[in-house]
């Protein structure tokens, strides 16, 4: 009893220290602008929240909550978690819908518009342009997430979490960027992404989705360069922290096929279950990532399982079943109450394959690569039984980077967040614990790559006009009235245009104060112990000009 | 006891007679094509259903179920009944959402693309082109629903129902078309529609939504015709069956204003509650229609109540509250269990006011007047506690005309459906009682006015090509994969195009066998006992050239 009381005191002390340091996190100018309006209110609320977090921890014998973070690829808002929209698309996601009903639906989660940036934003709590990060291409690049970036895995590790990663990574082909060098104790991941894994196959060429790549479908006797078509790329690897990665999917000389891709997906599904079992059995809390490659897939299965039948849609329904297994395993292991599970997508659909993929622009316009709502709005659900109200929803604005800061806070690891750079992620613990209306963010800056393309405040969104064009002439949309951003209204622009320009000024001032950090650079494919000869050859050709 | 047993026997006998006659209802060729494939199965199911209907009636002391039919104006699929989509639009409809959760959501309800046609299809069970019906314009037309058409109100009246209508009617300005001459014991309705009532005001001109109509905003000294701007139109009237209508909203010489429009809406809300109370107190079952004029409205209120704030959106949220009162009254009167309540919209949004109205093309493309899914897909919910499963949903195709045949069946009034004309409405009692997968329709023919514009079968939809163009060259869409009908696929058209052409042949053959009936014609404004002098004058000018 005495020991427990002491424990609570120590937690409260630790968190008040953390809070003191929290105030010194460097946030974007817009957050400071809000903090100037709401700081006292938030500080008072934070005291209450610290008490609540300490109580929760006490209930769990002093163990901070486990975190399971599931990030699905390229699925726009509305494609998962809603029965109504299941009917529209002919894709059933009963397990995701049920999962959603057990926690809070974040109805206005913003991501970055592409895979690499969203994942980097989550991992570092920073919008990716701040570290020079754009979408990592499929070929060798010799670039990636810099060692200097501090990931949520590193932060949670400092606090004693065990950390594992399973599935897509997409943070570059240089050694410092690999997950086991970025805070994960163990990782199974492909070095590249689905353009390699699900499209660069004979089957995807025959399905008419990958054109001109595979030699069996197109050869040109006048071709000179034998490296224009990517060749010898590393596929799936596994590694432990501090160790070498080991390629596990291909033997030397073997060709990557749709069957390999399907096996890889199935393997990750097996591995996430295994990891969950292993980590749940340990004394320490865990942080576990599952970043599936599906629904991206470009070849029809032997037999479709969904009414939709499109090659993405069908795999989304398959994935729903797989996630059902995973959720069941969480329950079966008896860790549900002390495990925060977040499920979301990384960005909008790959609209380039509309009509046959089965995923279409549904509510919002646009998709992957675009700053339009269809590119940066995704379904997001958070479950934490007994803490987050089941069946709840929040219409507040949240950005994927907020999860970084929020997870750190909940784990009691806020003090490990670096203070020498801008952290975009806002602590949203109040929203999760106190419910709708408690977000500390009412804005988002939407970038495409390194370029600011739009600014969101409340229900208003300005598409950034070309340089020199005044805000009053920029297209400003009311997202509630015009979710597809098709009818800009001068009546909005004439007052909000100027306010948006002020927002941009506050944003740029902070960039001037904290200039962007450089992208990680290096030789590709280092730190892999069993590079295939064709990968060695590819790297040598790459190095020869580099 | 003996009396009850006799009752059941008489019901079973009556319904087996009804069923024998049901087979002789003249349906479209496509239904006969389906019946040839499923007739025996359906007959067996119908026997079971008749037993069930008799049991339900017995439970209610022999009283057939009351029917309350609520039809909302110009709201596309997804705008009501879904929390997710409430968040998207910033329009809260908690009462409708709760109502939806208490019954079955019809996820694929097709309507006609405009007010008059959808309402006529419901009233007569016939697609409106069969009776020459197109959208009734706002000015004097001397046309309307023909006396020869047999409405669901007339059919239910034959079976002893009391019948009332409150709200929008929009079936023409001739006496035979008035609701109290089409089967309703009592009716309160405006003679025209919202273009007159919500737009032809000084306030709508000042709100910049009605241009060039009101003399206070635009006058032209060179104008000759004083009747180009409609003038002296009759507004709201009330009447009893067989009696004269009486204008109730305007005094002679008075100008119609936004305040009048709001009062009219509020009056209909009061009157629907009054009607419900009166009808519930009677021994006979009732058929009661509430066809609100809201959300159509073009002037901002003193203070918006929704986050969206658009002039349609805000009234939709207001209407949600009003419907909440109505649903509560149904419960309070103790008639919930024996009352079927259907709530739906008549067609897609009035997209012409997108950006400011607050309703936008959301999931499906298009709106009012268009055969696109955005024009003919609306939210539809059916509640019948203890009979229809709460929280259920059906992805089956249903057409608004099916309600005619289904209501008749449930009321035991099938025998009164005329046998001398095509009835498009399919009996969907099996769907309501046995649940999803029991629709007897997998097709719809979509007309715009008198022109066939598209044909739907399952998830496929062909836009009808111009005459002479073969089906293989017509755009064919997969609605699940491409809800916005933007990516026609030759791979669909090359097989389905021919099948669609066959469907059209079956449809046209039946039209040749049962030619269209004529639209009702007559002198406008007859049967109104207190015509204002300005209305008399307007009719005289109309008659002078007619």
Automatic annotation (TrEMBL), chains A, B:
SUPFAM superfamilies: Alkaline phosphatase-like. Belongs to the sulfatase family. Its EC number is 3.1.6.1. One of its GO terms (molecular function) is metal ion binding. This is Arylsulfatase. Residues 1-20 form the signal peptide. Residues 65-412 form the Sulfatase N-terminal domain. Keywords: Calcium, Hydrolase, Metal-binding, Signal. The keyword Transport does not apply. The keyword Zinc-finger does not apply.
């Amino acid at each position: 009893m005495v020991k427990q009381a002491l424990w609570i005191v120590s937690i409260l002390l630790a968190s008040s220290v953390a809070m003191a340091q929290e105030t010194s996190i460097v946030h974007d100018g817009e957050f400071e602008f809000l903090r100037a309006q709401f700081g006292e209110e938030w500080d008072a609320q934070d005291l209450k929240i610290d008490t609540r977090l300490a109580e929760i921890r006490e209930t769990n014998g002093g163990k901070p909550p486990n975190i399971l973070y599931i990030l699905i690829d390229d699925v726009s808002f509305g494609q998962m978690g809603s029965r109504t929209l299941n009917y529209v698309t002919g894709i059933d996601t009963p397990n995701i819908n049920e999962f959603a009903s057990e926690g809070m639906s974040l109805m206005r989660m913003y991501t970055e518009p592409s895979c690499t940036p969203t994942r980097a934003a989550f991992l570092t709590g920073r919008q990716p342009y701040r570290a020079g990060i754009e979408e990592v291409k499929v070929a060798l690049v010799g670039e990636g997430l810099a060692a200097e970036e501090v990931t949520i895995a590193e932060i949670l590790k400092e606090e004693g979490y065990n950390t594992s990663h399973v599935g897509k990574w997409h943070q570059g082909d240089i050694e410092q960027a690999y997950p086991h060098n970025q805070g994960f104790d163990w990782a199974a991941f492909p070095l590249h992404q689905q353009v390699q894994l699900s499209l660069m196959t004979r089957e995807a060429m025959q399905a008419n989705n990958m054109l001109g790549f595979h030699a069996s479908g197109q050869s040109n006797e006048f071709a000179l360069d034998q490296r224009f078509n990517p060749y010898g790329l590393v596929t799936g690897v596994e590694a432990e922290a501090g160790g070498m990665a080991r390629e596990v999917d291909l033997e030397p000389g073997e060709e990557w096929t749709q069957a390999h891709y399907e096996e890889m997906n199935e393997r990750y599904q097996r591995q996430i279950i295994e990891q969950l079992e292993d980590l749940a059995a340990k004394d320490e809390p865990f942080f576990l990532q599952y970043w599936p490659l599906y629904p991206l897939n470009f070849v029809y299965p032997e037999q479709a399982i969904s009414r939709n039948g499109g090659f993405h849609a069908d795999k989304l329904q398959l994935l729903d079943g797989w996630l059902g297994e995973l959720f069941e395993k969480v329950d079966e292991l008896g860790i549900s109450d002390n495990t925060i599970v977040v499920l979301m997508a990384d960005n909008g659909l790959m609209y380039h394959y509309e009509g046959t993929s089965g995923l279409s622009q549904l509510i919002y316009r646009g998709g992957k690569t675009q700053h339009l709502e269809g590119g940066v709005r995704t379904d997001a659900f958070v479950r934490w039984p007994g803490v987050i109200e089941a069946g709840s929803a929040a219409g507040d604005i949240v950005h994927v980077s907020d999860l970084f800061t929020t997870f750190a806070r909940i784990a009691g690891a806020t003090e490990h967040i670096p203070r020498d750079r801008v952290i975009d992620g806002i602590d949203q613990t109040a929203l999760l614990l106190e419910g709708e209306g408690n977000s500390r963010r009412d804005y988002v800056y939407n970038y495409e790559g390194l370029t600011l393309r739009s600014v969101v405040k409340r229900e208003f969104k300005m598409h950034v006009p070309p340089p020199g064009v005044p805000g009053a002439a920029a297209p400003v949309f009311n997202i509630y009235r015009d979710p597809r951003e098709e009818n800009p209204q001068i009546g909005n622009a004439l007052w909000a245009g100027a306010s948006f320009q002020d927002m941009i000024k506050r944003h740029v001032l902070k960039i001037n104060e904290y200039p962007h950090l450089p992208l990680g650079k290096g030789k590709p494919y280092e730190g892999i112990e069993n590079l295939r000869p064709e990968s060695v050859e590819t790297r040598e050709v790459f190095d020869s000009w580099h």
